[in-house]
What does this fold into?
Amino acid sequence: MLNQVKESRSRCGEFCVPDGHLNNKELIERRVEQVPTKSQAALRLVLSYLYLVDGPTNLSNPKYRDAEPYLKPYEIIP
It folds into this structure.
């Protein structure tokens, strides 16, 4: 059991959402501004879907694919 906890904690840095990301519209906009203009709308949509309580409730595959290169490992939806 202890080994499972240690493994889970070691993987958390790669797959856990950091504090402060939920409902943080400023963070989303900062991230969006850092990507090429053609991908900004897609990234804004995906990050809003992931982090905003009142964000979109579904994603289209093309929009997600456009944003995926700019997502962090814990944001990838398998």
Q: What stands out?
A: The chain has a mean pLDDT of 86. Residues 2-75 form one domain. The radius of gyration is 14 Å. The chain has one domain: 2-75.
